[in-house]
Known about the structure:
This protein is of the alpha+beta class. The protein has one domain. It contains five helices and seven strands, in the order ααββββββααβα. Strands 3-2-1-4-5-6-7 form a seven-stranded antiparallel β-sheet. A hairpin with an 8-residue loop joins strand 1 and strand 2. Helix 2 crosses helix 5. It starts with a helix and ends with a helix.
Amino acid sequence: xxKNVLLLLMxxxxxxxxxxxxxxxxxxxxxxxxxxxxxWGRCVAVENQLEEGTSFPIVRYTFEVLDGIKGVHTxxxxxxxxxxxxxxxxxxxxxxxxxxxxLLFLYSESDSGLTSPVGMAQGAFRVTKTPDQQVSFINGVxxxxxxxxxxxxxxxxxxxxxxEVEQMKSRGPITRQALTAVVEKINNYQLKKKTRSWR
Length: 199
């Protein structure tokens, strides 16, 4: 019995580590396209759950939206479920603490009602604040993914300025105003592109 339990744990851990190691790099254009919801929010509740039909522990998060950027509105309260990254969960998946602020790019929910940040740590940004309360964002890979393999056509047609592109390439914290402006330009460009393709 103990041997079977140990083998099961080793299998789950091996799968989790392999999954985390093979996450594809996604740039900011891809993150915006793949995310159903993008928002800066404060985590107000964390509940661990066990649910039928899932083979790993689930965490239910409640967030107060401080700035709704895509798919949600400022002031809204949203609830979503995500796999845990603890024992039996998915290694490398970001987790959120009650009272902490974060900027998230979330996939649409799966058939089982679960979601996660786009590109795992790439789609979860820690919030930093200066003494005068200026907010900046930096993700789990130090923003190194934002400008990887950017299309010159996409850059030109989205209307991004040279300073905005350079800031995406700087691989450091980006201010709230700068990142929000870039994400909104990219989202508007992608919406127009979709509209053109439907005609």
